Here is the input.
Amino acid sequence: MEQTQTYQSHIRWYPLVHFVIMPLLLLNLIWQSVMLYQAPSWDRGVSVVMAVVFGLIMFAARTQSLTAQDRLIRLEEKLRYYKVLPPEVAEKACGLRTGHIIALRFAPDDELHGLVERILNGEFNKTKEIKLAVKNWRGDHLRV
Here is the structure.
């Protein structure tokens, strides 16, 4: 059973990526850099470059998966706006910045209208402020 999600507990750590792959890539970069420093050679220089490339590959893969997730969240939320909000508010809500739309996914249907109005009135500058304004958190347990 999934535990209740709140602002404090909504960050998702993916153990394989965050606690295994990323630390190993960092350790490899440090090790290769030390080896290059101790005994400079073209081979060791290439090893440092490859360690950086592996880190960049990890970063690119993570960024791409999060971008795809954000696109899906945006689509889901825009469909929800047309279902839950009055048509004129839904139309305006669909024009919100992606960050606002993503933050609003945690708002339940009964709080959505008020939060959208507050965003449109300029009350929130950061997505964190939107998330903190949600009273009854609607968990998102399927995040990447």
